[in-house]
Amino acid sequence: MSESIQILENVSKEEQYKNIVSQFKFLIEGEKNEISNMANFCALLKEVFNPLWVGFYIIEDQELVLGPFQGPIACTRIAFGKGVCGRAWQENKIIIVDDVDLFPGHIACSSLSKSEIVLPFYFKDKIMGVLDLDSINIAEFDQIDHFYLNELLKIMENNKFNH
What we know:
The chain is α+β, with helices and mostly antiparallel strands.
């Protein structure tokens, strides 16, 4: 397990993602504790891209419960189908919201949040929760984030299978 990551300077978002995807495997290699891996996942994204908030919500007793995160204090529990996270869980799909003020039923844990991306994560093809990233900028997230965040989640899922 590596305990550091190389961050490139003055490169595109896609190049930065390619760089961290290639290193993320080594960051979590050999670590079977999922909470530790999720925590390092969040720290990595916070350090590299500095979103307002990045974290996991884990399905527990038919609601999403706050897991490891980086950023301001967050909502602790989110109901199925509520807000962007609950909707991503309900629809079992990645949701990108360019302007959270225009998303019906958006849950504003922070008034600073302007855009959001939420991705379901899995274990053995069963949804286990969602990864949520918030930004202070309108339309911060795009298909590049969609693709590479999904790749990082797959690396974490595959790491779990190897234990």
